């Protein structure tokens, strides 16, 4: 099969890219852009972005609307296998194309993100910039799910605050 035909088949297998919200708490939002639907054929994995055109990279975006500036953030995203009922129909992995290795969970970090701004997550292990789906079955239907864990946020105080003269307890001597 020609490379052009392979690329056309691969591109036809990936639907329109959509933004998925993986985490939303207290003004902190973590999103990921992925195609939907993803159409698979037995023993023919799909990659996003496609191997023939490996941009843009798949990276989570952290949006900060907490009211405070964020100094740093660390979080783990697990791409769960796709299930139909209780049966696994698709294995999903963060993919390192240059090494041909997949990881189910990946730790991401973000640097400073001002309030009402967004920043891209950087994988703690470099090179994992694709998502790979592979199937071991002839047919099935399911939804991709994610598990976000170990969310650690460090906020930066914009200024110091001194309490008023009567805001603390009374202290007596003698």
Q: Would you summarize the structure shown here?
A:
With 174 residues, the chain is mainly beta. It has one helix and 13 strands.
Q: Assess the beta-strand content as a share of residues.
A: over 45%
- The tally of helices reads 1
Please, how many domains?
1
- Helix/strand-derived class? mainly beta
What is the number of E strands? 13
Sheet with the most strands? 5 strands, antiparallel
What would your notes on this structure say?
The protein has 174 residues and is mainly beta. It is 6% helix and 49% strand. It has one helix and 13 strands. Strands 3, 6, 7, 8 and 12 form a five-stranded antiparallel sheet that branches. A four-stranded antiparallel sheet has the order 1-2-4-10. The N terminus is likely disordered.
Provide tags for this entry.
single chain; 174 residues; mainly beta; five-stranded antiparallel beta sheet; four-stranded antiparallel beta sheet; disordered N terminus
